[in-house]
Design a protein that fits this description.
single chain, alpha/beta, 8-stranded mixed β-sheet, 10 strands, about 50% helix
Length: about 450
């Protein structure tokens, strides 16, 4: 049985973009899949579960595989049982870590594994093992970068108490609201990742505990990697040793930390990009400028949300001040958010490079919008015989904002985020290597 003490540090991964996804090269002896089972004081269930997992893989998995038991500093007989299974079953390897933490265990074992596809599952095997092959198949074929089991998919069949059901759904709602996560189930202990992706992604993941899964998925999703979801049949383990309150508190702290890092552009997610052309959206359409259709959709979504924020702020400020001041304050605050959102979501610019300049240019665009909306309010005030109704003010502002929105998009595309891509389109997530000094042409 190996321990974490003599492990050599994995070689540094080059910072160039990820290679294009391809079907995994299958060898006769080299394991294609490495399934990690993190354990802590699981002497009662470890042997039964590992033998059941091994039997399932031996019967159903068409390639060579390995099962790695990652012992998280257990204090019972778990190390002895792990060592016994290591000796008794050829496809089983045991690794001993002297520090607790599921995330630490996965990072250590995945970093040292040579298998092209890496997975993990909880030792209780709450997830039906028939979902294992559908989980890893998209990674082997080259279709996806990560894969997760989802207990919240419509076709999933789940048996668990109302308390855990409520906590799970509430947590995923928090992720959707705060980090804009689109995956459905962050904490299901049933996930897989390609080795080439793990080499780039794991160094960016800070958490060593239960939030490890969530952080990994959020960063992968923000970097544009493809996450495949598999509906699972799942039965709750009534003897689970997870401390719900402490885990929930740590998760919320992790959400705040990751959200702040994403908002400030502190994470080098450009290291996770696929090469330009690997994404079908990179392919140009005849007669359509590069990225225009995608940018229009993103701009419209951001514009609709920022307009709602603007109207809400205007209504709040209008309670304590005049229409011109309320309009200026609401437009200023919403414009800052609008520029930041369009910079990242519409035009695909990441990191802090030129962020201040972009905001300054956005404020110039804001000034033009302010002139349009303020002029509209002034014209309304001059045309009305008395104080115009609040609903009339809002209607005029909506019309003025529509005109300002069209002008804002044209200025953003032509001036703030000008065309710099290889095909004449605005730089997108895939062709931003020109802005990264670590990736010279």
């Amino acid at each position: 049985m190996r321990t974490d003490t003599p492990l050599e540090a994995p070689p540094e991964t080059p910072l160039e973009t990820l290679p294009a996804r391809e079907h995994v090269t299958v060898g006769r002896s080299q394991p294609v899949l490495d399934v990690v089972v993190p354990v802590y004081n699981e002497e009662a269930d470890l042997e039964r579960c590992v033998r059941r997992l091994h039997d399932h893989l031996a019967r159903t998995f068409p390639y060579a595989f390995r099962i790695t038991i990652a012992d998280n500093a257990s204090t019972d007989r778990t190390p002895e049982i792990s060592a016994y299974l290591d000796d008794a079953i050829d496809e089983v390897t045991a690794v001993r870590l002297e520090q607790k933490g599921r995330g630490r265990a996965l990072r250590t074992v995945w970093s040292m594994s040579q298998a092209p596809v890496l997975a993990y599952m909880d030792v209780d095997l709450s997830t039906d093992l028939n979902a294992l092959l559908p989980l890893v198949a998209p990674l082997i074929s080259g279709h996806s970068d990560l894969a997760i089991g989802s207990r919240l998919a419509r076709s999933s069949r789940v048996v668990r108490g109302p308390k855990r059901e409520f906590i799970s759904r509430a947590y995923n709602l928090i992720l959707r609201g705060s980090l804009a996560a689109r995956f459905s189930d962050a904490q299901c202990g049933f996930k897989a990742i390609r080795k080439d992706v793990a080499e780039r992604l794991l160094p960016l993941v800070e958490d060593t505990g239960w939030f490890f899964d969530t952080e990994m998925l959020v960063l992968a999703e923000r970097a544009g990697l493809r996450i495949h979801e598999v509906p699972v049949d799942w039965v709750d383990d009534p003897n689970s040793t997870v401390h719900i309150v402490k885990t929930a508190t740590d998760d919320l702290k992790g959400v705040w930390r990751v959200g702040r890092a994403l908002a400030t552009g502190a994470l080098p997610l450009d290291r996770l990009r696929r090469p330009f052309g690997d994404d079908p959206r990179d392919r140009g359409l005849s007669g359509v400028p590069g990225g225009l259709a995608r940018q229009l959709v993103g701009f419209c979504v951001v514009g609709a949300l920022s307009t709602l924020v603007y109207l809400l702020l205007y209504s709040l400020f209008r309670m304590g001040t005049g229409p011109q001041i309320a309009n200026a304050l609401a437009l200023l605050l919403s414009a800052l958010g609008n520029t930041a959102a369009n910079r990242r979501l519409t035009f695909g610019v990441r990191g802090r490079d030129r962020a201040v300049r972009h905001q300054a240019q956005g404020l110039v665009v804001f000034g033009i919008g302010l002139a349009l909306t303020s002029g509209s309010l002034a014209a309304l005030d001059a045309a009305a015989s008395g104080t115009p109704a609040h609903s009339t003010e809002l209607a005029v502002l909506i019309a003025a904002n529509l005109a300002a929105t069209v002008l804002r998009f044209l200025l953003f595309r032509a001036w703030v985020f000008p065309s710099e891509g290889p095909q004449g389109g605005t730089a997108t997530d895939h062709d931003l290597t020109d802005h990264d000094p670590r990736n010279p042409r």
